[in-house]
């Protein structure tokens, strides 16, 4: 059970982080391409 919750937490965190990064780098295409 712990593994499942951990996996869900990681996926959720990555999804939030990805959306945040895309919003921040939307004004700077070069930054998003660098990563």
Instruction: Sum up the overall morphology in one term.
Output: rod-shaped
Number of helices: 2
Question: Helix and strand succession?
Answer: HH
Total strand count, please?
0
Report on the biggest sheet. none
Please provide a written account of the structure.
The chain has 35 residues and is mainly α. The chain contains two helices and no strands. The protein has helices at 2-24, 29-34. The mean pLDDT is 82.
Record the SSE blueprint.
Layout: H1 2-24, H2 29-34
Key phrases:
35 residues; mainly alpha; 2 helices; 0% strand
Short description:
With 35 residues, the protein is mainly alpha-helical. The protein has two helices and no strands.
């Amino acid at each position: 059970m712990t593994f499942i919750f951990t996996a869900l937490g990681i996926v959720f965190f990555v999804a939030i982080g990805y959306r945040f990064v895309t919003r921040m780098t939307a004004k700077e295409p070069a930054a998003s391409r660098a990563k």
